[in-house]
Structure formats: C-alpha cells, structure tokens
Fold each of these.
Amino acid sequence: MRGRVWTLLASVCALQVLGACDDGRRDEPGDAAVVSDGAARDPTGNRIVKAAEDPDNWLSHGRDYEETRNSPLTLINAGNVARLGISWYHDLDTNRGQEATPIVVDGVIYTTSAWSKVQAFDGVTGKLLWQFDPKVPGETAAKACCDVVNRGVAYWGGKIFVGTLDGRLIALDARSGRQLWSTLTVDQSKNYTITGAPRVIKGRVIIGNGGAEFGVRGYITAYDADTGTQLWRFYTVPGQPGRADGAASDAILAKAAQTWSGNWWNNGGGGGTVWDSMAYDPALDLLYIGVGNGSYWRRTLRSPGGGDNLFVASIVAIRPETGAYVWHYQETPADQWDYTATNHMILLDLPIEGKMRKALVQAPKNGFFYVIDRVTGKLISAKPYTAVNWATSIDLASGRPVMNPEADYAKTGRTWSAMPGALGGHDWMPMAYNPVTRLVYIPEQQLGFPYRADPGFRPKAKGINLGVDLGALNLPDDPAVKATVRATVKGSLLAWDPITQKAVWSVPHAGAWNGGVLSTSAGLIFQGDGDGLLSAYDARNGKRLWSYDLQTGIVAPPVTWARNGRQFVTVVAGWGGAYPLLVGELAWGRKGPVPNRSRVVTFELGGKGKLPSAPAVAPRVLQTPPQFGSPQTIAIGRQAYDRTCVACHGSGAVSGGIAPDLRYSYAITDKPTWDSVLVEGALKDQGMVSFKENFTPSELEAIRAYIIDRAHMQSRLGAKSARAR
C-alpha cells in the first residue's frame, strides 16, 4: 500500500533524467585568480555590446547588457502577426514552474527547465541537439521558497553556463552539452539556492543566490569563464562585527553595519540575496545588482534596535572586474514586507527636463516606478505604477519613502493589509522597453497581503522563517466572501512612460501572475498570461492583435530571433512559481487549478503545427476519514501548517495546483503512511523531506487533524453547493 501511495505523492517534484559527462573536476569553492587572457579577449562581449547590430540573435538574458528586451526585428509586424502559427514544440520532462529566458546563438536555442536542466534545440527544426541534467537532489526543493524553477543560461565563447538549484555553477560545451567544469558557489549545509540566470561580463561569470526566507546571508560572486575559479565576492549585508570576509565588500560593509542592530548575523542571517536582476553599462563599466529582502521579514526580530539595514532592498553599483563598490540606492529602508529590489532593471538614456540623463529604471515590488541616475545613484523621480498604501510618496530630496505608520505591523501589533503585497505590484517577470514608443511595458498586478506578526515565532531547521503569521492568508469558507476577495486580485499589461511617470494604456488580465514581456521595433509587445494565452499587442495602444492558447499558465518571457530570413518567437510555457504554491485557491483560473503542461513552443509566420488536445483532468477523490482531535488540537495543527507547509501546499490547506492538495492525499487517512513521509522522509528524493526537526510528534499529528478537518469542510461546502443547484 505504501508503495502505491508514494507513487501518487511523487508528483510533488519532477523526475530526474539524462546527465552529461564530467571532466572529473570536483565541486568546491574556487580560490582567487587572474582572469585568463582568452576569456578577456572573447568576442562574445562585443557581440552583446553591439546587440542592435545583430538582430538575428538573443545572446544575453535581456538581449543586450542594458536589459531592454527589445528586438530590432521587423519581419513580424502589426500587418502580419495574425498569421503566426506553431513552427514546432517540445514537451518538457518536468511538471513544475518554467521561468527561463531562452538564449539564441546562430540558430541554436539554449534554455532551461525546472530542476536546472538544460536543453539545446535546432531553432528552425525543433530537433533536440542535447540535454544536460545536473541531477539536483530532490530534497533541495525544501530549500526553495518559490518552486524549483530556473531562469535560464548564459552564453560566452562557445560555453553555456547554468546555476543549479543546489548552488553549483556549471560550464557546458555549447556544441555537445559536455560538462567542462563545475564550481560550488554556496555552503550546501545552509539553505541557499540558485534560480537566477548568470551573466557574463569581461570573461567573468556573475551569479547570485536565493534563500533569504530560510535564513541566509546574501552575496554575488564572479568566476573565471574558462576555469570556474573564483575571482571576487561581494556580500550584500554585513556579517558578524570584527570578522572580515576577505571580500570586495569588506570596506563598505563596515559602514553598512552601522545601519543594523542586535545580533542580525544570527537572527536570520540578514538576507539580502541577489537572486535575479542584473544589468551592465559597458561605457561606465558598472554592474548593477538588485538586492532582496531582509531575513527575517520582521525587522524587530532581525534588527531589534532599528536601522535601515543596508543593502536590503537596494540597487548596488559595482565594478565587474573587481567587485569594488561604487554607489547604492535603497528603495525600501528597513524592509519588512518582502519588497525586494531584485526585479528587472533597464538602463535607458532619457531626456529629462531638457537634459539627456543616463538612467536606470525599475518597477520593484513596492509599487513605485523609479528613475535613478545610473552614474551617481541619485533618485530622479519615483511615482506609483500600481495601487500603493504602505507609503504616500517618495521624497525626492532624501530618496526615502513617506511611510504610512499603519504599515509598521510589528510596531502596531495589528494586521496590515498592504498594497502591494509580498508578491509585489510587479514580481520577477521581466518588463521591456520599446525605443520607438519610449514606453516601458510592465507585468503589473494588484495582489494584497495581510501582514501580521507571529507572536509564537521560533526559527525552524527547515522551511521558511519569516516572523509573520501566514495564517492571515487563509480565506474564510463563505463562498460569497471568497468571490469578493478573488475579485480584488488583478493583473495587467501596463504601458508606462518613464519620463512623465504616467500610465499610457493598460490591458487587464483575468488574474495576477502573468508572464514576462518582449518588445520589438516593429511595434509589437508579446506577453503570456496565467490562463495560457500568448498574445501580441500593438505597442502604441494595447490592442490585441493575435493570441494562442498554450494549455498552461505562462510566466516566462518570450524571445524573438531570426535565421535565414525567417523570424521566430519562442517561449517556455509551464505554470508555477511562488503564487500558485502559496496562495492556494486565489491562484486558480476560471475553471479551477491551472494545469502545468511544460513545453517549449516556437512560432513563425504561416506555421502549421498544432498542440495535442489537452488531456482530460482525472477526477480527484476528497479524503474524509473520521475526524479526530479537539478544537485546540486542530488549532495547533493549523498554526504548525501555516508556519511551514503553507509555502508549498497552499493557504487554508488548498493547493494552487502545483504541489499536491493534501486534502486529497491518502496519507492523511493512515498515520503510518503520514509518518513515513513527514518523519522518515520517504519522499525526500521527490522534494518532500522529513520535518521531524521542526515539529514534535504531537504537532505532526495535529497537522494531520487540521488537514482532515479542512477536507471535511470542503465536503460540506460541496454538498451545500449541490443542494443549491
């Protein structure tokens, strides 16, 4: 029986498949060394710098170092985009969130899928040339706050670079997929992960990491592209006073430490992970990195004496050759709302008040659109691009937000329903800039979040450690109230003027958590949405010109490229990420949970390909064994679930459709099976590790009682709905 149950539960994570050959190098942190002359002279950097002159390719994450995500190609335009059809598709072997931006080099597509797997395709035919599986241990999923995703590879000098979920940086031969070197970038005994795409600048492979929700200290590191040797490291928050890191950040962090208090290095590690956004200005020779949230979220826990907590929620400019600090701008001082500055940045030259300014623009989670002088780090302007209630404005003189005192939930002791919430007015999904319209196109969303201090918080060995009560997310069981709450969840494609700081047009979506954006100089904007539609819009007015149903939610951004006079559009589709994992029912589509059917799809004018018919959804059987436990026991189970289990299995014990819905799991009916999973770790290879360090046996049993109670509640609601019909 247990074997059958484990098989049913194994859908929590994808299967591990095909690996490539290794040259025998052991994974270990690299020592400092000088960049090889070969890497420094590699022509790839020149091609990226001159991306505008190379329209057929997509050589870097944002297409160019400025991260504009605009293609000069015009073969597909408003007059013919309605003729787009599928050229080819490839179904992936993972059923988790897909967030990668494909890299396209001379007709070859390099991309990643969940679990940090890498694929290379002939872009014209769709033939799989090779694939590489780094064999990330399944238990690593327990360290990932936001799904086992990967946002893509980097290309440099015939090599492909990928960061893996378990913290390795791997170089592959672009022609064969053979592993050339592998370097361990993190302490794997701690809760670090990598989900972001590397960047390569001057022969240096730049990679950050994630894990702030789990209690780590953030940093970014540069490695030699030829050898994998570590060249420099920049920590983003200070460590224990009096203990230098021997890193490029030592001098500036000695000053930054003055903005912290208490024993922050032990109280959550500080956080500040650099888990996604970077941009590079070749003329200024400045690398810009976006720094994430503090750890713990609640500042009174991590820095009880106050302070701005630099460089949490900041943009930091550093030298790519040495890691030397140049300037910083902190968007959200003393962040305790998960208002990261890791969202996509774009470098633009903008005419402002009669003067051309070298600007950096960003629409971070906190809801304000920032225009910053990228030479000096001084704020030029900031205006809300979405609904905002935590601050009234950004003071231009100081660059600081004018806070709403009620937003300080740790100080007031009251629940604060914030806009934006922890998933932001704009999350990681890349925006794009069109040089013709001079507009920035943002995957905007309105998704509130109820912040409430958790009075019983204690750090756990595994799982998220926030210091806030995620039980506040639980929806009431009244269907009418649920419908009212769901109606407040919105998303849109927003065209924003960065000069006037005003919205030009907006196209509403059915819900939040929609895909990244592609712009073309032909006046087209491409975006996928949570309902599975990939659409093309007129960049001038937002008119929808074309769409195609890919049968799964789309969060990754599309790219466009050309070969032999034919232009293509490629996207990696597959629903997942933090939103459907955490918020449960709120992430459902119009017909219930959004399915994950992960695939790479390429379109061209006149394409005749078709996707297979969507398979029928197998009916689920709600598990309603006899209830047990007192109301007090069930309440203890709810609290324990909300402190750990909610991050994957959804608020209110309702799955968003990616991880299993435990109300339908046979395991809750059988204590030995339940214990085999949660205590013995029977499914650790599929991501479900043992949580015996987190809970007492009585707490684990209380969680089971709570889930059974939620299953019975769903049964009663279903019966009531049937009677009403």
Amino acid sequence: MLNPVALRRSSFSIKSSLKQLMANPFLDPQFEIRWSHLEPSSIEPDITLALETSQTSIDELAESGSENRTFDNTLLALESATETLERAWGLVGHLDSVCNSDELRAAYNVMLPKVSEFYARIPLNQKLWRVVKAYAETDEAATLTGPRKRFLDETLAYFKDHGADLPSEARKRLEDLEAELAKVTQKFGENVLDATNAWDLQIEDESKLAGLPETALATALADAKAKGLGSEASPVWRFTLHYPSMGPVLQHLDDESIRRQVWEASSRVGHEEPHDNSDLIWQILRLRQEKAELLGKTDFADLVLERRMAKTGAKADEFVTDLHDRILEVHKSEYEELCSFKAKSLGLKSGLLKPWETQYWAEKQQKELYDFDEEELRPYFPVDRVIDGLFDLAQKVFNLRIEKRKTVFFEVGSSGEVPEGAVEVWHPEVKYYDMFDATNGRNMGSFFTDWHPREPKRGGAWMNYLRTGAPDEDGHISPHLGLICGNMTPSAGDRPALLTHREVETIFHEFGHLIHHLCGEVEIRRLNGVNVAWDFVELPSQIMENWCWERESLDLFARHYETGKVIPDDLFNKMLRARNYLTATANMRQLAFGKMDLELHRRFAKEPSGELDAIISEIQDTYVAKLDPPAPSNVRRFTHLFSSSVGYAAAYYSYKWSEVLDADAFTRFKKEGVMSAEVGMDFRKKILSRGNSEDPEVLFQDFMGRGPRLESLLERAGLRS
C-alpha cells in the first residue's frame, strides 16, 4: 500500500535564518532527521510557522502579476512555495502512523483542518490562477516538451479539477468541504486503531491452543511476557487483533469457540461505541458526493478517476464486472468443494461454512490436496535474510547497491550525540539503508524500514517518502529519502522473526514502491517517483511479488534460519502446485472490495443513509460466498477507503488493474530471463525512473512494446478458460 500523505523535499523559500529553522525541529532542513527532537509540543508552532511562510510565498507569487512569466518564476516557484510545509506536515503524519500518542494525536487534530484549508485554498486563489493561466499563454509555454510540458498540463488540470473556475460562493464551500473531510477521515482511522488496540485475549490453558503453529505459540507467549502477564510456572498466551497474532488463530486453531471469539472481535472493529464508524462513513460519502457535484461531476468516482488510467467510474466498474464474470463459476465451484470437504471430514451433510472457519478448513483442504502446509515455509524466511536477499536481487536485476547504516535511538525529548556515520531512528527496531547506482556509485537515496507491530503503530503495510530529490548543479537528481513499514510476525525468545510467504510478498511489494521513489530521475519533483496515477502506482510494487515465486530468486533469500539450506525441491514444488489454490476466491475477494467501493461512491453516496451491512450484502451478492451466519462487512474498518480525504476511495479497483499490468509486464522477464539485468534495467529506465513524466499507457508501451493483456493475469492465476 502507498501512503496517501504527500511528502516532499524541504526547501525554505522565504527570508528566514537557519538559526530560526533549527529552533523549529519539524522545519529542520537536514537530510538526516533528528527524530528525538520531534516533540508533539513543537507540532503547533512549527506547522503554524510553515503555514505562514508558505502563504507568504503563495501571496508573493499571486501578487507578482501576469507580466514576464517564465517556467521558473511561475511553475517552479509554485512548486517550491509549499515544500517546507509539505515536509514538516509529512513528518507529523508519519509519526501519527508509527508513534501515536494522546499528545501527538491532539496536536495533529488541531492542525489538520488548518493544513487542509490551506491546501484547499491554493487552486481557489483567483490571482494565483490568473498568473498560472498567463504563463500557459506565453510563447515559452507553447514550446515546452517532455516533463516541463507534462508539468504545465498537470498544473492546469489540478487547478481546474479543484475548483479554480468555480464562482466565489462555491469556492468557499469547497474549502469547508476539504476541512470537514480531513477531520472525519482522521477520526475514522483513529477509531480503527483504538478499537484494534482495545481488545486482547489471554489464554492460560495451553491445551486450548491445539493446532496452533509453534511460531504463533512462541509469539503469543512473548507478547504476554512483554505485558507482564504470566510466569514461568503459570504461562499466559496473549492474542490481539493485529494480523500476525490473529491470522494463525483463524487459520490453524482447532478450538472453534476461540476462533469464533477472535473473529467476532475483529468484525466489531469500527462497529461499536465509542469507536463506531457507521455514521462517519455516511458523512464521508456525503461530503465526497457534494464535492464532486460542486466540481461538475456526477459522482466522486468520476472526479478522482479523470486523471487516472480508468478515466471514469463506469470504466472502472466495467473492468471489475468483466473480471467477476470471467471467474464467477470457478469461484462458486471452489466454495462448494470447500463446503463438501468440511462435511466429508466431519461426517456431516454438506452445508454452508461459518465465517470463523473458512480459513481453517481451507488450510486443511490445501494440506490434503497438495500435501502442503504454509507453515513449513516459515523457517526459510527469517526476516533479516529475506531483506538481505531482496537487496541482492535488487543489485542483480536493477543494478542497485544497498548498504546498511548504523542507527541510534533516543527517546523523544531526550538529548544524545549521534555517532559519526550513524543515523537516528524513531524506534529501536527501525533500520536505515543507503542505495547507490551499482555502476557509477551515485547515491540515489536512503530509506528506513520498520517491520513489526506495536500498539502505537497503525496496522497494515505501507511505503512513504520523506524527501524527493531535485536536480543539482551537475544536473543529477539529489538523493531521495523514503521508508517502508509493516506489521510482520515478530521474533519470539531466541528465535528470529520467521515470516509467512505472504509476509515476504508484502515486503517485496512495499520495496517495489520504494525503488519507484528512489529511482526517480524526473527533473520536476512533483512528477517524480510514485506521484503517478493510482491505478498505475501499484505496477512497480506488485511486479516485485513475482520474484517470491521463482526458484532462482528464492534461493537468494529463502534459507533455513538454522541450517542455511535452501527450500527443498519437494517443498518448492508443493508450493508451486498450491499457488493457485482457491485462486478465484482470492481474486473475487479483491473484486468484491473494488465493487463495494465503486457502488458506495457512485450510487449510495447520492442518498447517504441506510443499514450498511444490508446495502453491502446487496452490492456483493455474487462476489462473496454465502456463510452461515452472514459475515458483516469490513467497511467500518476499511482504512484504504475512509481514513484519508481521498486515498484509495473510488479506486480500490487499482490493485486488480495494476495486477493486470504486473502479470503482463513480468511475462517479459519470464521470456528473457527472470534475473535478466538487461530487462531489469529497461524496467528501471522506462518505468521506475520516469515517474509521471509521461502518460502511464505510454510508459507501459515503451517497456512492453504493446498495450497490456488481461489474459496474462488469468493465465498466471490458472483461470483462463
């Protein structure tokens, strides 16, 4: 997942001394961030100052008039006007994601509407809009090519799409809408985090944990000890709603009552007071619909997709429906076979599955069909070796050399000297790396990693960027700075963190986003890296997952944590045979989310009210299996859609859309060499380095020599009829 918070390289564009900047830690322009200096008490004064300075820059540009306009004094000046604010606010948003606290949250929520209102006002500034239009009519503008022409087109579209041509009353309402959306979506995310952290399950009788893998048992025991629960004589096993804890319970635990208890707790996240998100969802949908109508669009989907590959909500829905129709019968068959398998195993008549037993019986059926248990793979995926192997692959395929740096951690508000060559981090588990072009040694950027769950950290996995480089005096792009985070299985006792294969795929996925950012070579910062259409942004991330299935690449990192041996051939072959187990079900699950998202934003947002579960049951009628009892929708905890003003809203289809692109693009690697440095460098040159400097369809065509083929996805999934 790509974090929707936009973060940019810092550059103070007004007259302000370095001394003043250093007195405001969130405004410190240094590349290496002093995380311990970023106290919540500094958020309000620092962001207030950044808002003031950014506004001054905007005002100066708006008042400069329409004469003698150039690319540098208009578009680049506009780009640089908010860089300090963007970087500072990005740091606040990042800390809110990984180090949430009452004090930080309070400061964040005070400044959030002010920041949102500031950004909403930029395209509504009529003097500024006249300046931009004046430049667009110059002789210089008419001769622009390449990224500069692209940036002009994108800037004009941005102003128009955000209300620049609206009458004054409508512009004011749009400002208010943006501020309201920022507040309610932030509250949605807070509710999910708080509800998730509010529940745990403590088991004192080990006999109730039969079926649970050894790794999960050790993790639950270590979690309890960390909370001061139990003793050597009377151990306690603690389970939470974070997926590395909850997932193995639903998948492996024999005790149905405990599985049910965990599933029911998970299904209540965002569903009950004081963390009920039901009304917030309708509020968010109403605000988004009003925003769309103000801007002359039928619905929010048409608004956000206009500059993306799909272009319209109707086309996105057509894509989802087409894939649904192609795999529906296989999906039905898979579910019927799973129900029959359960019935046969228990000597019962066939009937519907319960929602807390689908993963459990699927695991058992997979074992019977393929003699394969995913837990057999865990010993081959210690997290540090996975990371080292991933970096080795990056060098072999993409010519990227990655070196680890020493790190140091200080508590926020404490003082300490950072040793020479070391980098400060926000948590002791966080690591830091530099990335170089392996051919010429050029420093392309650096990044942090933060892989394991903790209560102040939001769930899921994501990539974000803290700094985007710009051309230096030699014309080279200065180093970028990014991060990748997740909530993977932690270590337990003396045993290292052993990952599931799906967790390995997630790390590779986020790394794909990361190198998309770090490999950016576009001269315009706002066109660099992951600043692309969101139904294209998942191509670099999802294509990386393919290397988690190839023998040649797996041998780089899949090594037994005790013996160092590679995955045995028989286990590898079982893994491949099981790859497409319940493949239609997995694909339909993503399509169900995409359908729900589109229908809510295209149809139900126009009359935002009703019983959510009933509505979504209607929407997903042929997309989800019939369970007994029916499972409530996950919509109240669906942060992808409702925890930011836009995010993946009306665009969740993007994952499956990009999967078509990645499946097709990887066929070139399969044909010319999975570890081909020639193909890898071509992908880096034509996709990763070019950001949003060209239409994504053109970029894909440049790499493949043709447009994308849907059949590639169906073939990979074993679903082509």
Amino acid sequence: MSTYLLEIGTEELPADLAESVISQFELNVNKDLKLSKIKFSEIRVTTTPRRIALMIEGIASFSEDNIADRKGPPVSQAFHDGKPTKAAIGFARKYDLSPEKLEIRETPKGSFVFAKLIEKGKPVESLLADYLPGWISKIQGRRFMRWGNGDFRFSRPIRWIVSLIDSDVLSFSIPGCDPEIQIGNITRPHRLHGSRLEIKNAKTYFDQLKNVGVTVDRNSRLLHINDLVLNYEPNEKVKPDLTESLLRELTDLVESPLLVNGNFDESFLDLPPEVLSTVMKVHQRYIPLYKENIEFDPLSLDSKNILLPRFLCISNGLSSAKENIVLGNEKVLKARFSDASFFIKSDLLISSSSRIDKLKDVTFSEGLGSLYERVNRIEWLVKIVTSKLKFDQDDIEKSVRVAHFSKHDLVSNMVDEFPELQGIIGSKYLLHEGESRDVCLGVLEHYKPKGTADSLPSNNLGNAVSLAERFELLFSIYAKGERPSGSSDPYALRRAANGILMILWNKDWKLNINEIINESLIYWQELFPSLPFDLASLSSDLEEFFRQRIISLLEEKDIDFDIIQAIAGNTFSTSELLDDPTDVDFRISLLMNMRKNKTLNSLQAVVSRASKLASKSSISKEVIDPSNFIDKSIFEKSCESEMFNVLEKLKPLATNCDRIKYKLLAEGLVSSAETLTRFFDGEGSVMVMTDDINLRNNRLNLLTILRNQSLKLADFSKLN
C-alpha cells in the first residue's frame, strides 16, 4: 500500500475558502475512488493560506477487478444433447469466451446461460492522473480568477504542484493553464524560511514542512492558536475575546502561528468598547482583552472599566522579529483608533434629530422611497403593533420614539466607516444627548435577532420596533413583487419572518398577524398606488410564507415532524395559525411533553381511529357540542352513553380554548381513553358502520364531535 500526496501551491488564498475546499475535495475524491474500486485507508484534506493538500493513505497499486454478468439465451436454446448450439457459440464469441466458460443459472423465468466477465483492475497511477485535473477544476468558490494567458480559473494563481506516490512523481496536466504549472516534488516553505523544498516522500510531507515553519494541518493550527490565546498570562485577570469565527479566520491567515501582544494608549479607552472591539477584531483580526468578571453595559460610552489597553495578535512572522511586528501593529491600530475618535467627535457635532433629515437623501429600495419614508412606515406599524399588544400609552409613545431614531446613525461618519456599528453607535449618541435609557436600549436592540441563534431584544420597546421593522420589510418587498426563491433571499425576508415569530414566542405575545397583514396592505396600497399588487393575492402569499416559517422554525427546534404536521399542517388554514402564532408554539410544547411523558400514545390511537370514521359524517369541523346532533334515545349500549358523557365533559374545554383549557382538554382526553376504547373494542362495544342508518349516523356523529374537540389541540391523525 502506498501514500499519495497532492499539494496545490497558490498565492494567498481567501480565509473563507478553506472549509469549503476541504469538504469539496473530500466529497469528489471519495466518490471517484469508490467508483473506480480503488482501495484506500484514509483521505486527508487540509489547507494553509498558500497551499491545499490532499493525502490518500493506504492506496492500492491497482483498482479491484470489475466482475459483471451478462445473461444469454435459455438453456433449452443454448444446448442440444449437451452440446452448444449456434446460439451459445455466438453469445460466447460476443464476449470473447469459449462455450465451455458459459455458466448455467436458475432464474425466476427458468434456466439461462450467463457469461461471467472479468475486467482486470487498472494501475492506480493512470487512474489518478485522469482524475486529478477534474478534482482541481471542480473546486468552486467566490471570486475565482484567471491568470497569464490561459482560461483555467482558480481562487488564486497556482504557482506549483507537488504530486507524489510515495517518492515517485505522478505527472498530469491541467488544461487551460498558460503558463503551464510545473508538477514535481518541489514545494515552497514558509515565506521566511527559503524558496524551495524537495519533498522526499509523501509520508514525510507534514514533518518536512513543519521543520521549515509550516503547520500544514489546519486543525493542528487551530488548536495551537486556541491554546496560545487561552494560556496567555493565565495568572492575570484577563478574558481574551476569541470568538469561534475569529479563531477559524486566524487559522486560515497564518502558516506558522506566532502570538504577540501589543499596547495602545489608554486615552483610547474613552471610546465605546464596541468601537475598539470592532476595529481590533473585524478590521485588524486582533484579539481584544477584556477585564475578567466585568458586568458589561451595552450602552456604555467608554471602555475604561471594560477593556485593557492591550491586544493579542496572531502573526505569521518569525519570533526573532516580534519586536518589529508589535511596533508595526501598534502603529496601525493607533491610526485606526484615531480615525474612529475623529469620526465620533465629528458625529457629536450634529444632533441625532438633524441626522434624520439626511435619511431623505438615501434610497431604501427602488420604488419604495427613501430611508426617511421607510422610518415613517415603521413608526406607523409600531403604533399598530403596540396598540394590539395593549401597551400603555407611555410605552406606545416611547416605542414610536425608538422607531423614529432607529436609523439615524446610518448617515453618521462612524457607520459609514464601520457598518457593523449601526444601531450600536446610534444608541450611544442618543444617550450622550440625554435620551432615556430604555429608548436608547430599544434603538440598540431593534436589529435583533439577526439569526435563529441570536439573542432577542431585552426590553419591550426594542421588541416592538423589531417586529415593526420586520413587518415593514416584508410588506414593502412583497408589494414590490419580489419573493425569496431557493437559496436566493437578498433582503433576508426569511430571517425577518423568523425574527417576528421568535419574538412573539419568546414574549408569549398574542398578536393576530392576519390583522396586521390586512390593515397594513390597505395602507401600503395608498402609499404606493403605482405598485400593481392585488390585495387578496398578496395577503395570501404573505400568510403562506409565514406558515412555512413556522414549520421551518419548529423543525430547527428539533420538534418531531409528525407533531409539527399535527398542529401546523394542512388540516388547519393559514389564517387559523396566524390568528395567534404563540398558540401554535404552546400546543407544540404540550404535545411534545405528552409524548415525553408517554401519555400521548393511548390518546392518539383512539382519536386517530375516531378521525378515520369521522370522514364519513356530514357534520362540519366546527361542531363541538353534541346536544343537537346526538339522539340519546336510540343508544343500544352503555358505551354510547359513556361516550356522550365524555363529549359533554370536554365541550366547555374545547370552547374558546386558552392555555389552561388546552391542558385540561389534553388531560380530559387522556383520562377518557379507556372509555373511548370500550366504544370500539370488547364485549360492550358497538358496530359503528351498522346497516341501521340512524344508528350508524348517530355513532358517526359521536366520533366526529370527538374528533372536532380534539382538533382544538391537534390533528391526531397526523401522528405516527
């Protein structure tokens, strides 16, 4: 068994390409090796900023023989008196066999002759040489480029390729490369460790590069960087802000991680912590150092009690050059902090109210007016939302004020330079001007949640404006005629709808989304008479979009799929779901707990059985009162009376259900399970589909009303 090595040497690769390359390479190589029946023990793909490496360990010299059977004529036609006929001879000749090599096998259609064909395995070297150009060209990503005079595209220009089976070079060519890429056993070490390195054997590749300053294995680099940061001055009360995303990015920016620490002037601690952190993490890829066990105030105007005037940096340089590396990074950071300080000072010369007028000069989206007009729409929606949520007048006015100032910082110097700070810096400017803390917090948090894993606004004002902003986005973009499709969702409409549902579920707010949609679209029609949308059609589209978001979010919460279908499936109209989305969430949790407590199975069995027969009844789903649809005088057995009593007991619980009634209804159904079972099974049971039409309809009505009452909880027929 041999080891194969492929190293693609490039100019500096984008940091965000690494994980994609690894998964793409592994998939394609695995697929082709298995297709060609090439045995191997392990595939390793890894990357550094300058190289993509593929290692196939334990690879065989030849692919396995390919054995195939070909069915021929029936034995009765192939042989006569034990001798091959022309049919057998012709069939054997077709596959270059003698008739004696034909096999006789029994099939469901009788005895037939078969030809067993053995295609000998091929040399793995030739197979790899055929596959390698395709493996390289199949790597995809954003911003791929051409270089030289060729047509071949890759993320960055390929400068060398190492291709070895053990110690032997395996040559191949990549069509479309001009100049032609040299393929051999020569790689390049770390930029500061020389220009050439001869790889003696595929098995020694990782060790040889390690000796010249390159940690090729990506996971090893990641763990090393993490250890360097976490072990930085462990005895000091310091908390390095090394997020997972920053850790991955740093891993893909260096080949030989070197930890250096730098300082910055304490005067910059007068700047907000988010400003310093954004400059360090996002723009410079440094690691900020927070004071340990500090309670962070999101509206803090300075960093004096939050951050240390120091930072960590993962360099790709030599340890001997640490001093120069530190000085260089400190110089760059000072310039960036000085810029930020200047931008804040210039922003504070203009009031937040004055900035709002500047929003008139910024287009929101073609056909939808300016950002100023968008803010007005958000304010209008905030009034609608807070009124329906029964906010007191003071909170309604504060919510409108949050909406009014929600976008003012989009035209500030700080956000122009640091877009990541929108909302954050605006809230701090407002606090500096003397605005109330709860309004400032609302401005800060109204962008939340930015995803399903993100936190939600902490106060009601932020939640209300977050709802309004997301409704505005959905109504405006839908009215414009645009929809999310497949993976394309440029306005993040799915995220907007998810955010609405997440807030409502988290706050347990009862909000009729149908009413919001219908009232708003009438207003939107007045605002945009030139947009040709049909109210009914647009409303239906939005309602269905929300239904799909409900289902999608519940799936992300690991809710059993059958329970999702039982409560949010097509049994129920979209209008029913959107009248109160929190109602859906509550019933989902209730059924999941019943399944967990093993109280759902017996109930499910009986109700599902009743539901199947209920389809034969003419009673509508809205009927939950048995008194006008059941004739007690024709009961033949006690189980019918018992069933009627169950329905009478459940009737008030299934009427105008609330949280308490749902639980009581579930408990009532569970406690009545044995009674319901007796209706179907045992000596005292009844034949539902009896020939007597009156008895049959009476019994079907009993079951139908039971089904209707249980539908207030869920469609139990959807449960597995």
